[in-house]
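Lecture 7 notes: from sequence to structure.

We start with a single chain of 116 residues. Read the sequence below before looking at the structure.
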Amino acid sequence: MHIDKDLVAASATPLVLAILTEGESYGYAILKRVRALSGGELEWTDGMLYPLLHRLQRLGYVTTEWRTPPEGRRRKYYAITDEGRAALTGHQQQWAAVTRALRDVWPGSVMALGEA
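Now the structure, written as tokens:
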């Protein structure tokens, strides 16, 4: 299934912030987590993720730290801040309102998202 780019863009910030509430992570791992969470339906690229992560850092929603793990190459790790958690709460409230409205106009359809 093709997911419209506007919907992908609208969901990107809350999705990344929610992933980072699970623990700090680096870019490639975030891309893999998005793919896993969507059952392969969302295939983000580096060109989409990294500008988003840079914007989240500028907004103060994430912090970064470069590390070189013993088994590999140097990576930039991202961690959510208190400001990022507050922003995520706002996004969750907005998405809940949108989901309720869609459920009301699409009763009995695929919008039984909570049960999926």
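The chain has a mean pLDDT of 92. Keep this in mind for problem set 3.
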